[in-house]
Design a protein that fits this description.
This protein is α+β, with helices and mostly antiparallel strands and 201 residues long. It contains 4 helices and 11 strands.
């Protein structure tokens, strides 16, 4: 998944509780911003700029992957029926109990990187530094602007932060990832993925 020349994302924090995201599209393609598989219902996600940049690095280095699962099944007479019982257990919650980096040998850098991003975004949610828009479409030679309400902080007043926005859009079978930053891309020590050998690419 790559970016697309001719598309720019502008992020403006109009006040402490709202961020405006504008997508300008002169790529020659009609873009539907609704997640990598479509149907997510989410267009643009506001998060701190380093997290948005890390998300772009994730998609530049790894293909989109589903949640890692272990599947445990059972066959035979279960209760009153003869059907199979299958239980899917997601690994993502388990990663929280592993030391930093130790998930890589088990699940690969892709899952460890995505878990790191998820943790950082979750921390942003608790601070009131995150929000999302509904899905949207941007025709070629046009732009789309949306003002996103940030969720309330879980404790204390909301503080100022360097906002970023991340979105994944499709055009037919093609998938593209984009990010925008309120004050430009984060510095070299802010948005690099601290997972194995990935770093900043």
């Amino acid at each position: 998944m790559t970016s697309l020349p001719g598309v720019t994302v502008t992020v403006t924090q109009t006040n402490l509780s709202q961020v405006t995201v504008t997508v300008d599209n002169s790529s020659g393609k009609k873009l539907t911003c609704d997640g990598p598989e479509g149907g997510s219902g989410i267009g643009a996600t506001v998060t701190p700029a380093p997290v948005a940049q890390a998300a772009i690095q994730y998609y530049a280095n790894f293909a989109h992957k589903p949640e890692p699962l272990d599947r445990f099944g059972s066959s035979g007479n279960l209760g009153a029926g003869n059907g199979d019982l299958t239980v899917d257990i997601a690994w993502n919650p388990i990663l929280a109990f592993l030391p930093s980096g130790s998930a890589s040998p088990l699940l690969g850098e892709a899952y460890a990187a995505r878990d790191w991003i998820a943790r950082q975004h979750t921390a942003a949610v608790t601070k009131g530094h995150a929000g999302a828009s509904t899905q949207f479409t941007v025709n070629n030679a046009s732009n789309f602007s949306t003002t996103i309400d940030l969720g309330p902080p879980s404790n204390g007043p909301r503080t100022d932060f360097n906002a970023g926005a991340f979105l994944v859009c499709t055009s037919g079978n093609e998938k593209f990832a984009f990010a925008g930053y309120e004050n430009g891309p984060p510095g070299p020590n802010e948005g690099a993925l601290p997972i194995g050998s990935v770093g900043r690419r």
